[in-house]
Write a structure and sequence with these properties.
By secondary structure, the protein is α+β, with helices and mostly antiparallel strands. Helices cover about 40% and strands about 20% of the residues. The protein has 13 helices and 17 strands. Helix 10 packs antiparallel against helix 11 and helix 12 packs antiparallel against helix 13. It starts with 5 loop residues before the first helix and ends with a helix.
């Protein structure tokens, strides 16, 4: 069972949503079995594979992916969509399936977490299941089902009780998503989903964290989808006022601002924070300027507004310091859930392309705020691009209504965030209004520059969304 045809795995990776190398020249260079779960009828034999992918284009030359495989003697039509392929050993042929799509195989993981409830730790063929003290007891009869619509990771839901996120692309070290959720769960933070536990193993003497189990928020709705629905409702009849259309998002935006302030305060209390001197703002401005210089080579449309953006960054360099702490690091509406009990912020992994050690570095909370402000703007941009106007006048009316929606949501979010933040950390060094504006203005510009590069490379027609925002940014 160790002689898995690499070509089978290459073909399977290429058709998954979570594989990050699609469109690049790649090949599977190694398959390592890190655990074998077997000899427990009626559960299928399951092997935990780490698949090493090598690239020929010189960028990010090697990546490792977690691919758990359920092994069957016969074809299983019920999970045919997750079929990886056959494997032959001697005269025996068996069939491999992605285990995350197999309800029978996923019982191994549930049993591992249940086994860790008493002592906080259980070992299953070298997989270590860890539980957070006092977390929810799990029923062994829970049934799993894979979640749809995800990309970089995969999630499995256990009825309406728990959800397990499986990290597909893996790296050695402590995953920030687990680290932050563990601390905030122990602190009783209101605006995150409670962490029940996680799975880890050791590879070549280094800890590798493979999955995390959390409270399933059964009433949750995706924040970005809610915002899109609000904009669509407004633009369905652009002659109406925002208040009268049912498409006002200001109240939800304000509640989200309060939730983020609460999470930032919990992070500040749970992790180290500090005040850094003028060198930090000078370095921040330099990094932003370098990113702009690189972006100009990809998005020449930035050239006319580049001088104003450089002036925005110079204003940051003139500031006398920066308050830093642990933050989310990759915050937007898609990282939020609206539940019956308020907003929850999820996915604290940070920027996927950065090493764990870099993602864990303290940063300014205003980076998270800027990410959310840009996300409100994206909601209107996406809806506008998807709608067909009868004439130029109708298009102009819709565009103005969309602008007002975004402006109102951003203002409500920011005002609520600042009010809640002042109540918890009044007197902080970047509490001065002018300093806040300088930092936030620069972070918004930096985020929009990043978006412009991403869109130019991946969705050229969408480049207009960040470019329009950048055109409105001006130095203080």
């Amino acid at each position: 069972m160790t002689d898995i045809d690499y070509a089978l795995l290459e073909a399977y990776l290429a058709r998954t949503r979570w594989f990050g190398g699609k469109g690049r020249p790649f090949h599977v260079s190694d398959v390592r079995v890190i655990a074998r779960l077997r000899d427990r009828h009626p559960l299928p034999d399951t092997i935990m594979c780490v698949v090493t992918v090598s690239y020929a284009d010189g960028e990010d030359g090697v990546e490792r992916y977690q691919v758990p495989l359920a092994v069957y003697d016969e074809i299983e039509e019920r999970i045919g969509h997750a079929y990886v392929g056959p494997v032959t050993s001697g005269e025996r042929t068996r069939h491999l399936y992605d285990a995350l799509h197999d309800r029978e195989a996923m019982q191994w993981w549930l049993d591992g977490f249940i086994g860790a409830e008493a002592s906080g730790l259980s070992d299953l063929a070298g997989l270590r299941f860890r539980r957070v003290s006092g977390s929810h007891a799990l029923d062994p009869e829970l049934r799993s089902s894979p979640m749809t619509g995800e990309q970089s990771n995969s999630s499995v839901r256990y009825d309406d009780v728990a959800i397990m996120k499986v990290f597909r692309k893996i790296s050695p070290g402590i995953n920030p998503d687990i680290e932050i959720h563990e601390e905030l769960t122990r602190a009783g933070a209101e605006h995150v989903a409670a962490l029940y536990g996680w799975v880890e193993t050791e590879i070549d003497g280094e800890i590798v964290q493979l999955a995390m189990l959390q409270d399933f928020l059964r009433t949750a709705s995706d924040g970005f989808e809610l915002a899109l629905g609000s904009v669509r409702t407004l633009l369905a009849d652009p002659e109406q006022t925002i208040d009268g259309s049912g498409g006002d998002f200001a109240g939800e935006a304000a509640r989200l601002g309060e939730a983020l302030a609460d999470v930032h305060e919990a992070l500040r209390r749970s992790f180290p924070s500090e005040r850094r001197g003028p060198d930090s703002t000078a370095e921040l401005a330099r990094a932003m300027t370098e990113r702009l210089d690189a972006a100009l080579r990809v998005v020449p449309e930035l050239e006319p507004i580049a001088p104003r953006l450089r002036a925005v960054y110079r204003a940051v360099a003139a500031a006398d310091g920066l308050d830093v702490q642990r933050i989310h690091g990759d915050l937007h509406l898609g990282q939020t859930l609206r539940t019956a009990h308020g907003w929850r912020i999820v996915d604290f992994e940070g920027e996927p392309g950065r090493p764990f050690a870099e993602r864990a570095l303290p940063d300014s909370p205003w980076r998270d705020v800027a990410g959310m402000l840009r996300s409100f703007d994206y909601a209107t941009g996406v809806v506008e691009m998807s709608q067909v106007s009868v004439n130029e006048q109708e298009r102009s009316v819709r565009s103005e209504q969309a602008r007002r929606w975004s402006e109102r949501a951003r203002r409500s979010f920011l005002d609520a965030y600042v009010a809640a933040r002042d109540g918890s950390i009044a007197g902080s060094a970047d509490g001065d209004r002018s300093v806040r504006f300088t930092l936030l203005n620069a972070y918004v510009a930096d985020k929009a520059v990043y978006e412009a590069v991403y869109e130019k490379r991946n969705r050229p027609a969408w480049t207009a969304i960040p470019l329009a925002a950048l055109a409105e940014i001006a130095p203080d």
